[in-house]
Amino acid sequence: LIASNSNISNQDTITVNNSSEFEYQAGIGEEISHNVKLNNSTYTIEANDRSVTVNSAPSITGNNNTINLNNGTYTLNTDFSSTEDTADVNVSNSTLQFGTAGGINQNTTITNSTLNLANDTISTTEFANLISNGTNNLNIDIDLTNNKSDIINAGASSSGQITLNDINFIGEAYQTEYSFNVIQGNGSLAFNNYSETIESSVYKYAVGA
Question: pLDDT for 179-200, tens place per residue?
Fold first, then answer.
């Protein structure tokens, strides 16, 4: 089944079960709040290079479910939690950022995408597990005044490499050296090489990962 906002509204309930697939073609700037019931099936949002806000998670039954976020900029106001059951979340060729959600409480694979945590606020983003597949980028905030950075906290099955693509520096630097543990958890997810030179009013810094 393929649908769009021309034939499905946010008040509709969509049931996807028995290994079925439901693909939703998102509109420009759309906020998605569908009541999707996912039972061992696949739910795909195709953004077509548009910006989309996802406000609600599907209700999840069974442990053979997939949620795909493809080809767009996604702002999440849900962490895709389920009380007992699971879904694999796949983010492909997209930018993923977080509104009110503090992460994704499901196994998540990113492919050729960007995790954009840079929003002028220091926060910890939680993933049940985060797998980096292909070439992926990470944008973060670093608060130099308060010696804090954004953090990714990912589970023990997390793996792959991610490139520290951009740092949004907040405040003024007063120390000669800083160290931040951005990727935390017991998995093997790690940074590719990163280097940049920045200047404060007092010091020049070589930044690396």
Answer: 889 999 989 999 987 666 666 5
Q: What is the dihedral of CA 129, 94, 135, 104, to 10 degrees?
A: -10
Contacts of 9 (CB under 8 A, 6+ apart): none
Burial of 167 (0-12, 13-18, 19+ CB in 10 A): buried
Q: What sections of 73-128 are H helices per DSSP?
A: none
Residue 135 makes CB contacts below 8 A (sequence gap 6+) with: 112, 163
Task: Give the Cα separation of 89 and 46 in Å (integer).
Answer: 14
pTM for this entry:
0.89
pLDDT tens-place string over residues 6-25: 455 555 678 888 888 989 88
Amino acid identity at 55? N
Q: How far is CA 145 from CA 83, 92, 101, 134, in A?
A: 39, 35, 26, 34
